[in-house]
Amino acid sequence: MQTTSSAKGLLLVAGATLFWSLSGVFVRWLPGVQPWTFNAYRGLGMGVAILVWTLWHYRGETIALFRRSEPTAILISAGAFALGSSLYIVAMNLSSVAAVSCLGATSGLFAGVLARVWLGEKTQPVFYVAVLLALGGATVIALGEGEASINGYWGTLIGLGVAFCFALQSVSLRRYKALDMEPAMLLGGLGVFGLVAASGLLVALPLQSVALLLLMGAVQLALPLVLYMRGARSVGAVQMVVITMADAVLNPLWVWLVHGEIPVVGVYWGGALILLGIGLTTWNGRKLVSA
Fold it and tell me: Nearest 5°: CA angle at 227, between 257 and 63?
């Protein structure tokens, strides 16, 4: 039974990664959109989609779901998402996309420390080897882009902040795996939109662009988050994060298939390292981590 549950969890996390990796496809469809506005409408789409999912899935239990939510769980999960999304926008203004992606790959290391301290998950050395392999692969891909530049210490620190927020979100889903975390994710998405709108940074867009961003929020954020939340119930935090690093491989491949942009050679070499790291975490995974 445990093996079946773990296998299902791995498939759910892999599915989440698949949908997360569609970000590049949407970005190419929306050139020139101001970053804060982009993130705000994407967050709104995510929040609305999760609300619709919650109303459909829980039906008459929706209000009870919110009532039995743990405030600490909502604060940490929603806060990690909102802060991470905001820091990502700032990082993109200070550094190249390749550099931010590379720094984001350090999330596995943060997840390992957080899981050990907060959850008591004893992460075996092989997982750290897998994280380093995936981090090395992300670095190869970033350098292959030829634009892996970081603007000073702030760029580095903010990029690492993005990685830490994702790790915190992942570990919090493990910590509160007995709870349904839809309320936290819903508030996180709507919170991003509300903060940007309140700050006056929200720019008016054509209806078609708004619709596409709302669709992106539903398909590229809400759907994978629902899958990721359920996968977290049976998959270790570090293993979850390592699997999501496949985004560095899948993202440019989707852009190639949809928009015809040929990936740089580094994607193949870096992708091989990332897939090797993922393979290490999934090979007989139930023996590698003891809670």
Answer: 135
Whole-prediction pTM: 0.84
Residue 286 pLDDT level (bands cut at 50, 70, 90): very low
What Å distances lie between residue 22 and 26, 150, 255, CA to CA?
A: 7, 24, 8
Is residue 140 within 8 Å of 266, Cβ to Cβ? yes
Which stretches of the chain are DSSP H helices?
2-20, 23-29, 35-58, 62-67, 71-94, 97-104, 107-114, 125-144, 152-175, 182-198, 207-216, 223-231, 237-244, 247-259, 265-282
Task: Tell me the two tokens of residue 212.
Answer: 């596409």
Examine the pLDDT at 176 and tell me if it is beyond 50: yes
What angle do helix axes 125-144 and 107-114 make, rounded to 10 degrees?
160
Cα–Cα distances (Å) from 141 to 99, 148, 151, 212, in that order, read 10, 9, 19, 28
Q: Find the radius of gyration of the CA atoms of the chain.
A: 18
pLDDT of residue 289 exceeding 60: no
pLDDT of residue 148 exceeding 60: no
Hey, what amino acid is at 260? G
What is the distance in angstroms between the CA of the first residue and the CA of the last residue of the chain? 17
